[in-house]
Write a structure and sequence with these properties.
5 helices, 83% helix, mainly alpha
Length: 181
């Protein structure tokens, strides 16, 4: 190749020099571009690593948050479960109490259902009245209490008192003393 260069004339040498100059500039520019590409690549690689590191940190943080949330959910579930168990116990106690109250009500209704005969009541009201004056006084007092025009008055009670009063007057002897039957 050197032989060809020596044999070449000045014009050819100038062309070769020009070509070499252009080629060296092109290679220099290409080298510069490659270095820039390498620099960009290294920057991009570093950015990618930094982004991956941040993503891994974020992922680790989210994983911790999720595990805490799962623990909280489990605790809430336990609280709700205990609450339902307590509500169930309260409901059972309430049902037992309701049964007890209904049994008491039934007993009270049985007691209330027994109403003594009106003559028994009237005999109690006229107890101790053994002469005609006491019978009349007691009758007058009872009529003041049970007369239908009074507050709490009762027509049936007045009729019963009248029957008892008439019966007691018939039981009295001519001297005003009550005869025992």
């Amino acid at each position: 190749m050197f032989e060809r260069l020596e044999a070449a004339d000045d014009e050819a040498l100038k062309e070769i020099k020009l070509w070499l100059f252009k080629e060296s500039i092109r290679l220099r520019d290409e080298k510069h571009e490659l270095e820039m590409d390498k620099k960009d690549f290294l920057n991009e690689r570093e950015n990618t690593r930094e982004e991956n590191r941040r993503y891994e940190e974020h992922l680790a943080t989210r994983t911790r948050q999720l595990s805490r949330q799962e623990e909280l959910i489990a605790q809430k579930h336990e609280v709700i479960k205990r609450g339902f168990e307590e509500l169930d116990r309260d409901r059972q106690a309430l049902n037992a109490r309701e049964v007890s109250i209904r049994a008491r009500e039934a007993q009270l209704e049985e007691r209330i259902a027994y109403t003594p005969d009106s003559s028994e009541v009237n005999d109690v009201l006229f107890r101790g009245a053994d002469n005609i004056l006491l019978i009349k006084k007691r009758y007058k007092d009872l009529m003041k209490m049970f007369h239908p025009d009074c507050l709490g008055g009762d027509t049936e009670m007045v009729k019963s008192l009248n029957r008892t009063y008439d019966r007691l007057l018939k039981e009295c002897d001519p001297y005003g003393k009550r005869r025992r039957a």
